[in-house]
Design goal:
heterodimer; A: 358 residues; mainly alpha; 1% strand; disordered C terminus; B: 272 residues; 75% helix
């Protein structure tokens, strides 16, 4: 499927380069929004992995062998933006270092395999796997189907590009100047091999690698699982959405239970108000104080006690008569304040990260 | 398929990749026309000639460019047997298989009939097949000359002339570096498995073996990327990529660039 130089006209190459540039630009922009310094080595090493996987001579049913593209597993692990760059880099190295695939057709190869392949693989995998659990066998089937569809979509695009050449580019005598076969020949000729061997090879590798990751490293499947999380999250136990739901439920229950604090006798040790302290029998007796001293409050404490007045003293706003409702209102107010504060900090950190890259 | 044939063919593929890389490094070190030019001139000049090949619509012009490629190869110390083995024979087989049926399928003036007047060879068919083979042979020869005469590091630095984002250049550099590490790792895994295998293994087992190797390689890849990221961070990497470019254009480089561009322009003009 690697189109060499000479098969496509310059205008076709230019158009597909433009399409590929749009894909690369979009992918790069999207990746710069996340932790880009982390993404650079991940994509680079994954591109190397895709390159090596393309060299694997995979035994297929029927006694033949085939080569996979590695685009599906890249789209499943890295999401389409990462896969687009990883596969494009692998294709660029194949063209510029090993001479596989042309220079003028690099845009076309990247457009077909890296961009269209990644998008088709990702969309098919997400639709077919739906929201099944990470360890589900449905994900293996979805990966196989996604691999099969991605390779065949890329092959179909290449076939259409070939098939358009004799229609659009021929000399005055009708001699095709580039790929010589029209669509009615190019499409079936190209698709027969891909609907059988190449598609099957990609399906086998994608399904096998997803099955392997389900056992060995399920965290890598989370990014595109539809269950949340990103590349850095390798937690296996509870999905983020589920854990968030639990968190909110716990917060709500705790807020509702806050009036229970009224039932507790006395006050927390060391959290006395000056007046409470003054009436503390134990404090006065242990100090061996006189009656005058017993009624007095430490000077430092009395000075500092007016420094800050709480908006809800004793966990109840002054205008609320019901003590239980005051407790509940305090809990809601405090939780809301903490959430707002955390959102402001999160926003500030995100803006700082985006500004750093842009 | 025999028990180890697919393992062997994969291993041969790995070895061939190593061998190709080593041949390129050796050819790039020896003195010659291309090697004496600034890498940016080589990249821009040979890319321009590839584009000229693609733009040329006349077979004679493509053949002239092919001759030019042979002259450049000889002046750069690249043997014709290397090009024949690495490029010409392979392209002839693959593109020939694709182009040959066009002789019969392309509509046009019939210049020969065979098998009781059921198969016709057309003039347009012969022309298009010859043009396709010549064009692919010539373009791939120019690309191979660039690969053989320019170390990968120089190609990457030269690519900066095309204003590629530095992050992409960095990723290309790292990928190239780790391709060889991963090829070596995969090669060792296959060799160790082959050395422990006795008797025939079935197709399904072969697939399991290949997928298992790919899976382990994927785990190692992710682990490697974490290690590389840690190493980059510990050396102060914060996302900014700076690439030192110490190339300096000399008079001979400008002359070379003009020569390449002139040849390309003449070919485009003559082949239009």
């Amino acid at each position: 499927m690697h189109i060499p130089d000479g098969y496509l006209s310059p205008s076709t190459c230019a158009t597909l380069y433009a399409g590929a540039f749009a894909g690369w630009y979009g992918a790069l922009r999207r990746l710069k929004r996340v932790l880009f310094s982390r993404v650079i080595p991940l994509i680079a090493v994954f591109a190397a992995f895709s390159f090596v996987v393309m060299m694997f001579n995979l035994p297929l049913p029927g006694g033949t062998t085939g080569h996979a593209l590695g685009v599906t597993i890249a789209a499943i692990v890295l999401e389409p933006s990462g896969a687009i760059l990883a596969i494009s880099i692998a294709l660029a190295i194949q063209a510029l270092f090993f001479g596989d695939g042309g220079i003028s057709t690099l845009g076309a190869n990247c457009f077909n395999m890296a961009i269209a392949g990644s998008l088709v693989a990702y969309a098919s995998y997400r639709i077919l796997a739906a929201r099944s659990s990470i360890g589900s066998s449905r994900r293996i089937t979805a990966a196989a189907m996604a691999g099969y569809l991605a390779v065949n979509a890329a092959a179909l695009l290449a076939a259409v590009e070939f098939g358009l050449q004799p229609m659009l580019f021929h000399d005055a005598h009708g001699t095709p100047l580039y790929a010589p076969y029209p669509l009615r020949i190019a499409v079936p000729a190209m698709m027969i091999g891909h609907l059988t061997f190449a598609g099957l090879a990609e399906a086998v590798v994608s399904a096998g690698l997803v099955a392997y990751l389900q056992t060995a490293d399920p965290g890598l499947l989370r990014a595109t699982s539809g269950l949340g999380a990103d590349w850095n999250d390798t937690t296996e136990t509870v999905g983020p959405r589920k854990s968030l739901r639990r968190l909110w439920t716990t917060v709500a229950v705790l807020m509702l239970l806050t009036p229970l604090g009224i039932l507790a006798a006395g006050s927390a040790w060391g959290e006395w108000s000056p007046s409470t302290l003054a009436t503390q029998q134990g404090y006065a007796q242990r100090a061996g104080a006189t009656d005058v001293q017993r009624a007095a409050i430490p000077v430092g404490l009395q000075k500092l006690s007016h420094l800050w007045t709480a908006p809800f003293p004793a966990y109840a706003p002054p205008f609320v008569r019901s003590r239980k409702f005051g407790y509940l209102l305090s809990a809601m107010f405090a939780s809301g304040l903490l959430l707002a504060l955390s959102l402001v900090v999160q926003r500030f950190l995100q803006r700082g990260k985006a500004g750093y890259w842009e | 398929m025999s028990r180890s044939r697919f393992v062997e063919s994969t291993l041969i593929g790995f070895t061939r990749a190593f061998a190709r890389a080593m041949i390129s490094e050796e050819a790039a070190r020896q003195p010659g026309l291309l090697q004496s030019l600034d890498p940016r001139v080589r990249v821009v000049g040979l890319f321009a000639l590839v584009i000229a090949v693609v733009l040329a619509r006349r077979l004679a012009v493509v053949l002239a460019l092919f001759l030019l490629a042979i002259v450049i190869a000889r002046l750069s110390g690249i043997s014709l047997s290397t090009l024949a083995k690495r490029v010409w024979w392979v392209v002839l087989v693959f593109t020939g298989v694709i182009a040959l049926p066009a002789i019969f399928f392309t509509p046009g003036e019939i210049i020969g009939s065979y098998a009781g007047d059921t198969i016709h060879v057309t003039e347009q068919g012969v022309r298009t097949a010859a043009l396709l083979i010549a064009r692919v042979e010539t373009a791939v020869t120019f690309t191979t000359l660039l690969i053989l005469c320019t170390p990968w590091v120089y190609v990457l630095k030269a690519l900066r002339a095309f204003r590629l984002p530095p992050e992409i250049i960095l990723m290309l550099t790292m990928t190239h570096r780790y391709i060889f590490l991963l090829v070596e790792t995969a090669s060792q895994m296959f060799e160790s498995r082959k050395s422990r295998t006795v008797g025939r293994i079935k197709g399904a087992e072969q697939r399991t073996m290949a997928i298992g190797t790919a899976g382990v390689l994927l785990s190692k890849t992710i682990e490697l990327s974490n290690d590389v990221y840690g190493a980059m961070q510990s050396r102060g990497f914060r996302g900014e990529v700076r690439i030192v470019a110490e190339f300096r254009m000399r008079a001979v480089d400008y002359a070379g660039l003009c020569g390449f561009l002139l040849a390309g322009c003449i070919a485009v003009w003559a082949g239009r």
